[in-house]
């Protein structure tokens, strides 16, 4: 019985974490889009930020939310430098 309860708890935590990551992606994409409009960047840096944002969106749509968050956070960090 304890093993069943432990397994159920682990499954719930995993599903909740995945849902939280999935929900964070659109918010980060919106932040990037807003900052990108106002940012004064070199063409090379703007291209790199856009590529990371697109990679993040691609990962998000394919269910790879950890990779999506990594790419989106990297893009956002470049805009805050």
Can you offer a commentary on this structure?
The protein is built from 3 helices and no strands. It is mainly alpha-helical and 81 residues long. The chain has one domain. Helix 1 (2-38) runs antiparallel to helix 2 (43-61), helix 1 (2-38) runs parallel beside helix 3 (65-79) and helix 2 runs antiparallel to helix 3. The radius of gyration is 17 Å and the shape is elongated. The termini are far apart. The model is unreliable at 15-22 (pLDDT under 50).
Q: In terms of topology, how is this protein built?
A:
Blueprint: H1 2-38, H2 43-61, H3 65-79
Give the proportion of residues in helices: over 70%
Order of helices and strands: HHH
**Unreliable runs:** 15-22
> How far from one another are the termini?
52 Å
Look at the helices and sheets and give the structural class. Answer: mainly alpha
Sheet of most strands: none
How many separate structural domains? 1
- Proportion in β-strands: under 5%
Determine the mean pLDDT. 83
């Amino acid at each position: 019985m304890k093993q069943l309860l432990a397994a159920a708890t682990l499954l719930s935590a995993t599903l909740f974490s995945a849902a939280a990551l999935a929900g964070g992606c659109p918010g980060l994409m919106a932040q990037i889009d807003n900052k990108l409009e106002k940012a004064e960047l070199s063409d090379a840096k703007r291209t790199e930020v856009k590529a990371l944002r697109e990679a993040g969106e691609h990962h998000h749509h394919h269910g790879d939310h950890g990779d999506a968050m990594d790419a989106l956070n990297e893009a956002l960090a470049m805009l805050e430098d």
